## 1
Amino acid sequence: MPACGGGVWSRSRMHVVSSSEQERFAKSRMHKTVLVGGVVIIMARIFGFKRRGSRTNNSLANGYMDDDDGGDEEITGLSQLYCPEQDSVSHTRDVADVLSEMGKITADQLSELRQIQKEKPNCDIFQAIRELKLVDEPDISMAQAGLYDMEFRRIEPEQVDRGVFDKLGLDYVRNNRIMPIAVRGDTLMVATSRPADLFVIEDVKRQARMNVVTVVCLDEDIDKVCEAFNDEKIDCDLDDIINDMTEVEVVQDHEEESEDLEKMAGQSPVIKFVNYLISNAIREGASDIHIEPKEKFLRTRYRIDGVLFEMRQSPLKMHPAIVSRVKIMANLDISERRLPQDGKIKVSVGGRAIDLRVSTLPTNHGEKVVIRVLDSKSILIGLDKLGMEPDAMAAFSEQIALPHGILLVTGPTGSGKSTTLYTALGQMDGEKLNLSTVEDPVEYQLDFCNQVQINEKIGLDFGSALRSLLRQDPDVIMIGEIRDNETARTAVQAALTGHLVLSTLHTNDAAASITRLVDIGIEPYLIAASLNGVLAQRLVRKICPECKQVCEVSEHAARYAKKAGIKPEQVYHGAGCDACRDSGYVGRVGIYEMLVVDEQFRDMINKDSSVNNLRRAFHESGRRSMFDDGIVKVKRGLTTIEEVLRVTEVYGQNEKEVFIENMGSD
Ligand SMILES: [Zn+2]
């Protein structure tokens, strides 16, 4: 075979020299055959699709194949212009080479692969590696990443940039094997399982109107994310669903009602609506979903950052079907509508399993349903994420490192006490310590500790559960709440016999919790001997970063601002935008006061444990009160004075007056 003075791109019409059976198998659209010096080389397509090993192949020395019609035609135009350099016809590094360099396959395995490629040019290198089961998928992806000098990453649904995902659409993302994972400025990070497919990356760049950086991920990760998002995707417009549902006739107050309702709840618009209600709540970070029948309409509200937002008013006709659907999901009796019921639902949203606690209550307009979202992701946060100021965090860290004694966290319902306690437990070494909890109810499943669920119906109350726990060689015990004398007494006993006890109380401030223990009937000397410290806390909403601006301070707040030395240019608020539902706030942060029971306090508890006396001593100890801690956060532009006032309102004028006095005397 004489050199014809040029290579031939297979895409162009080609001249077939001979057509023996031996050559026929080389037929492939994906390959470019290049003829140089009587040698046919299967070259990788330069840009795009899978790169294959290209190498000399003597068995093909006398022939090369076409790609389209395989007819005998003359070499024309472009094909003859291409003249490859000697280098380009040598072997192109491929994923098998990288695997070999990574030490994932042996030299023998590499030659075996090359042999397969030689024998079956239709079989690409990936197929060959998979057929021989030489390595796992992550290894193949890592090798691909290495080949293209990219980073390899595993992708979880929560890492995906939902905005860009929705813009590109589920089908586009799935078909093109890409996943938008992060936006930084005007650059989008895209994960792909086909890094060689530059056309797709170009297309993403065009569609997203951003620069694109690419990382390599697993094919299965893309499927996992698509599946997760597909589950929560609502196929048609919500209003269409509601319109559909209003056409559904509901049978009222008949014997056979339950069956009808069940049938009706099985119809897809109801399922879609309820799925949407739940998945949307989780996406919005809501802690509770309220489904409330009113006289003329059905109201759905979400509690977000501690405040209820109305999400939708729907026709009242939808109510029975929705309630039935929720009840079916929670395994409740759908025919019982006159008594309150409780149940649980486990859902998967964005690939994460989330528990929901359902409670129904008969009201004058029908059953009201409240669904609490128990997302363990929101409760297991790092100590540094609690928002404690450095000194409070140091004191708290010291407290949870103590070997024995009682540490109380106090505040009203919804003040973040559980998050603080779980975070404290999460800091401890679950491998070396026996961490146990007694809770009612166990809301969040934690794998690093033993959790006991109270069941008063069968006599397993806090007191008896605690006594049993003490026989289980515990190091740290977390008691959901100290409500009665028996629990308090057992907690004191546990603390005095060498255990660290964490618990909560419902009191307004740290000092009041000591008085509260006395009121429950614990002798002051026992409190003085066992109590290590009390952390009082509230949650304040954080100013929305999207619409944060300097603002005029209100008359009410001005008094505090002036005393606290807050300059007018330090007073921020959120003007309201889409990101914060016009509330001006997004997310919450804790404000804390940490009372450490030192010698002076022990003495005082023994002598005079009245609230006022303890409060005065706390202020004299120089530690910040919750209110002062809130003011620190106002000065840092994290929250507003109004917000700090709102959450500390319940805890008495006394505290604020002390604050005003203190500031005045400076
Ligand atoms: Zn905003």
## 2
Amino acid sequence: MANLTVNGKTHDVDADPNTPLLWVLREWIGMTGTKYGCGIAQCGACTVHIDGVATRSCVTPLSLAAGKQITTIEGLAQNGNLHPVQKAWLEHDVPQCGYCQSGMIMAVAALLKDKPKPSDADIDSAITNICRCGTCLRRQCGGFWRRARAWGRSSIRCQRRSRRGRLSRGDRLGCYQAG
Ligand code: FES
Ligand code: FES
């Protein structure tokens, strides 16, 4: 029996200690906002916070999560107020199909908590989530940029790469405007 604290509430979970946290959250606790994408720590759809750190729950065994503070997308809003990243996502109408969005938001929220003014390198290394339908990339870049700007960073480059490297300045501005 493992003791799991999710969004401030403690649960006794009778599951094998090797069960991935993702499945415990979804199947045992009913927190289905955290999504299954690849199951191999590649896409980020399953991202939650463990003690404030963005973590891919599909490869995190229950035994490692027990006794720690776990936050899922359902617990990001506080006292009925959406998290600033959630507000930015809504403001910029970021999601397309929406499947990857909870993981994206959790990853961005963790990054901006640690680094309110992230560098391009910070963003590149921290936000490696994959959007499966792919059509929301422009909006995500815009939403992220606007959020970062609101927190004091005057400019931030789109992370999306063209086949030959970084996007041109014109393309990046297009992303911002789309956001
Ligand atoms: S489902 Fe966990 S990283 Fe893809
Ligand atoms: S919004 Fe569709 S997978 Fe990202």
